[in-house]
Each structure stands twice: as C-alpha cells, then as structure tokens.
UniProtKB/TrEMBL annotation:
Species per Swiss-Prot/TrEMBL record: Rhizobium deserti
Record-linked Pfam families: AzlD
Keywords: Membrane, Transmembrane, Transmembrane helix
Listed InterPro entries: Brnchd-chn_aa_trnsp_AzlD (IPR008407)
Source domain of life: Bacteria
Protein name: AzlD domain-containing protein
Recorded coiled-coil stretches: none
Amino acid sequence: MEEWWTYIVIIVAGFLATDIWRWLGVLAGSRLNEDSEALYWVRAVATALVMAVTAKLIVFPTGTLSHSPLWLRLGAAGIGFGLFLASGRKVGVGVAVPIILLIAGLWWLGF
C-alpha cells in the first residue's frame, strides 16, 4: 500500500490544482453576461497569451523546430493563417496546414 501513496498524492494535488478551478468556472460562467466588458477583456487577454506563445515558438523555437530556418517557420505560419481565414476559420485547417508545410520544408531541406 505504501507504494501507492505517491500516486494518490499526485492525483489529489492535480485535482486540487486544476479541477476545482474548472468547476468553479463552470458555476460562475453560467451567471456571466456574454456581452459584458469584463468578458471581452478576458477574451482579449486569453487571445494575447495564445498569440504570444505562438510567436515565441515561431521566433525562438526549441527542439527540432530550432533547426528549421526562420523563413520556413514564418511562411508556414503565414500561409496557415491565410488558409485558416479563407476556409471560414476552420481550426483544423489552421493547425494542419502549417504542420504539413513544416514537415515538407524540413524534408526538402534534408533535416
């Protein structure tokens, strides 16, 4: 039984750190007005954070992506974003196209 305590602690700590906040968000979210200024601000901050992480991955990549040239990363992101908009904002297109372009570019460059 003693060997299971580590896993139990991890599960409980993981639950306390994440799931409680998710449930509180669900409870509070049902009372929010979707057109409120506060919710517009939250959406803007969330979008800015996602774009900052995306820009960091493109400009300062790590791992295998760091061996690819900047022009390939920028081109894949730009073409992917353009096709995302052209497809009527389909997330699958916006995710799949840059990945395919990066793989093809890395293969073409011999990485």
